[in-house]
Design a protein that fits this description.
Radius of gyration: 17 Å
CATH topology of one domain: Beta Polymerase, domain 2
Distance between the termini: 39 Å
Strand order of the largest sheet: 1-2-5-4-3
Number of strands: 5
Shape: globular
Order of helices and strands: HHEEHEEEHH
Strand content: 15-25%
CATH architecture of one domain: 2-Layer Sandwich
CATH class of one domain: Alpha Beta
Number of helices: 5
Length: 152
């Protein structure tokens, strides 16, 4: 195989550089990720982004990023998402909270949830880090589109 052919072949495999090999049902994983995003919305979290990182991340299939307005709200949302994941057979592997409760991570292996205080979220800018990842539509049918800035 020529070098040019091999390069073209590699370029055609977009996002398959680091394929994941999840043993979980892809449909069930996606369903849980969408339900977690909806739960975050129900708990009044804002700026919710659900990213499909299959094929570009070896660690997870979906990353959920949202912002909370208080440490109590953020902790409650993290706990409820952990319980939801447990009910669906994706028990949280680990949960991490920073000292000032500005960033909570709930790691359910196939789905990783990041709940940020807005300034901390802007500082780490995970959406930019995972900008190659397509966004997943998670809003319930019939709900108004909340993307007022037109970023999607």
């Amino acid at each position: 195989m020529s070098k040019r052919t091999r390069t073209a072949e590699l370029e055609s495999q977009t996002h398959e550089r680091f394929p994941t090999h999840s043993a979980s049902d892809p449909g069930a994983t996606r369903k849980l990720a969408v339900e977690a995003a909806r739960l975050a919305q129900d708990d009044k979290c804002t700026d919710i982004a659900l990213l499909d990182v299959r094929g570009i991340c070896q660690v997870a299939d979906y990353i959920l990023i949202c912002s909370g307005s208080s440490d109590r709200q953020m902790r409650t949302t993290a706990q409820e998402i952990g319980e939801l994941a447990q009910e669906h057979g994706y028990p949280p592997f680990r949960q991490s909270v920073d000292d000032r409760t500005t960033w909570i991570v709930v790691d359910c292996v196939d789905i990783v949830v990041h709940i940020f205080e807005p300034d901390t979220r802007a500082h780490y800018d995970l959406e930019m880090l995972w900008s190659d990842a397509p966004r997943v539509e998670w809003e319930r049918p019939g709900e108004a589109n909340r993307d007022r800035a037109g970023l999607r």
